[in-house]
Amino acid sequence: MASYNYIAGTHTYQFADLKEVLAKATPARSGDYLAGVAAETYAERMAARMCLAATPLKRFLEELIIPYEADEVTRLIVDTHDKQAFAEISHLTVGDFRDWLLSDIADSATLKRVAAGITPEMAAAVSKIMRNQDLILVAKKCHVITAFRNTIGLPGHISVRLQPNHPTDDMRGIAASMLDGLLYGAGDAVIGINPATDSLPALMDLYYMVDEVINQYEIPTQSCILTHVTNQIQLIERGAPVDLVFQSIAGTEKANKSFGIDIALLKEAQSAALSLNRGTVGNNVMYFETGQGSVLSANANFGVDQQTCEARAYAVARHLSPLLTNTVVGFIGPEYLYDGKQIIRAGLEDHFCGKLLGVPLGCDVCYTNHAEADQDDMDTLMTLLATAGLTFIMGIPGADDIMLNYQTTSFHDALYLRKVLGLKAAPEFEVWLKKMHIMDAQGNVQPITQAHHMLQNMPKHLLNTA
Amino acid sequence: MTKKPNTTTLEHQSTDPWQQLKTFTRARIALGRVGSSLPTSEVLDFGLAHAMARDAVHLALDVDALEADINAQQFSTIKVKSMALDRASYLLRPDWGRRLHEQSLMRLQNLSQTKPIDFLIVVGDGLSSLAVARHVAPLLAEIRKLLPEDWHTGPVVITSQARVAIGDEIGQALNARMVAMLIGERPGLSSPDSLGIYLTFKPKLGLSDADRNCISNVRPEGLQYAAAAKKLVWLAKEAMRLKVTGVALKDESDAQEIGSQASLELPKA
Questions:
Q1: DSSP A81
Q2: Handedness of CA B260, B263, B264, B269 (dihedral sign)
């Protein structure tokens, strides 16, 4: 086994293994302290980064941080590693890799070519020695383009998940939030509802409701109901109009088990969704959500830091060619990401790692009321991520999710990003926005008048006021 | 809800002409726009709601005032602390909030019980001191009306810097057959004072959320005190009969009142 140590002055810092180096090199965050894997001093953290920078990328293929025999995510990472793609970077250390990524040699085509040769641990490792601006610059060069009823992830574009949640799944309440979002130009990534219910008949009603609205207005977008994947498979069997299949995923087999899933089940769900053949311009049928800390909260981290665990979740996502993958970065609470600074850093790391691995990463830029964060922090993170080429953000009325009780980003926020950074909606959706006179010929989303077609022809659930 | 200041719509402001849809949801729809940004009144309204939620998390529970309120409902009380001694360590170390401070544990173990406790009530600040200060006393008054007369309740244990599972250790220390933990839930912008109730049969260290029944969103704008008390006592009687709580005990007290049991797993208080 390789030895990992670094001498600073008279002190020698020693690390037992690669897993410890990775954990201790991680920028400080509460979840790694909670797990007992964080560096104990500032100097120890830098010593770990020095060690990490000197570590060859090849080492990550030899020293697995979670054993092959013990974990199917490790097996997936090893078994699908593309040696030919890796050849181009196989001579580099982690420190060299950072330099290479930032260099002009690593252009978009090159990064796309090597993506399958990069393991999540390599991506996590290099992110730990990158500054925020490095994470932004490299992520921006990584283009991950996916499609279902529209095209997501084109350079110069940012999409929005319209999230019209209601605490009791009231159809009128959900339809009202949907209409609100559509009239603000949101909803090109997906119209995705977190249901309160687990009841299959009630979920079926939700599928039909969203599908009817999409059909009524002929919107080039897709729907998703974020219930457990096993519910979605059953609903597909019962004939529900399912566009995207959702599931929360994590970076270890044990954590995924705690979610009631494994990779085979995700494959089964993907096949079921593909069998419906509902996409028009593409066949990316999966929608995943992830987030740093979920593995530790399931007691399934094996001493691995939460950011490396998170990057491993992207290997699972990558395997299933999702339309969208969403890191729900501040949802889990301050014991994992304490404040705005930690949430911002984690959001940038997740986006970088996802994009480098070839995953269409969006971000639920969010926080809970017991975290040391506020809407100013969200403004900072969403602006940084949109600058970095973020695939999509959340759109919730007024940024206040009344069902999940947390704060995220709003329809107004999405318009702010598009205006300040000159970003566009998915092209098919933008054509629709113009056709519906929600967007003018110059590409500005316009205020709506009472005479607007969609207000004169409301979804049927809003007409039934009984 | 707070009243918004009256503002007249100026030329640069745009009101959304679907205000009537606000009757269908408390979501912040039809907010209007200045350019494509939020109008001042909406930014300030959101800021006020966030401030109230932040205060609910960070303002310390007035334990003495709560104790007086509970005593007024004819319950005796005892005050204990968790291993998390301040709010910062409480937020960073959920594991400390689930365990009793050593001195508190000894105090409970030294309490001489004349007869075994059937139904122990523990009150914890959790993530909203506001919820506890507002709702615990009136809820206890409703619970008192419904509890079987032959059930021995023992003292109400008031716990600072508490998470749900600390009720297990308290119940074990007092050798209670069942514990009902009343605790402030994670505050939302529109619900800074939501109280949660967790019922656990045969409490002991090491139980999980699968071993409890939860009643959430107890407050006048959510689940009313009388309805919450009815549900709790129904569950407690069933728990006593079946000798179990958690996933094995289905709440059939009133099928219509299930409402907002979120399927997504939130971090628990």
A1: -
A2: positive
Which structural domains are found in chain B, ordered by start? 58-252 (3.40.50.11240)
pLDDT tens digit string along B166-223?
A: 999 999 999 999 999 999 999 999 889 999 999 999 999 999 888 999 998 899 988 9
Residues B4-38 pLDDT 10s:
555 556 788 889 999 999 999 999 999 999 999 99
Q: Which of A326, A335, A369 to mutate to test the interface with B (most CBs of B within 10 A)?
A: A369
**Domain with A25 in it:** 11-130
A317 vs chain B: nearest CA distance in angstroms?
Answer: 20
CB A18 within 8 A of CB A65: yes
Global ipTM: 0.95
- H-state helical runs in A6-129: 18-25, 30-35, 42-54, 59-62, 72-79, 83-87, 94-102, 108-114, 120-128
DSSP letter for each residue of B38-57: PPHHHHHHHHHHHHHHHHHH
Cross-chain residue pair B190–A368, CB shorter than 8 Å: no
Q: Is A442 a domain residue?
A: no
Residues 6+ apart with CB under 8 A from A326: A161, A287, A288, A289, A290, A361, A362, A363, A364, A392, A394
Total domain count for chain A? 2
**Are A419 and B29 in contact (CB < 8 Å)?**
no
Cross-chain CB nearest to B25 (options A166, A227, A333) = A166
- Please give the DSSP secondary-structure letter assigned to residue B209: G
Model pTM score: 0.92
How far apart are the C-alpha atoms of B202 and B198, rounded to whole Å?
A: 13
Whether residue A167 and residue B260 make contact (CB cut-off 8 A), yes or no, is yes
Q: Kindly state the tokens that stand for B132.
A: 């506890």
Task: Read off φ and ψ for residue A293, nearest 5 degrees.
Answer: 105, -20
| Residues across chain A | 466
Size of interface A-B (CB pairs under 8 A): 159
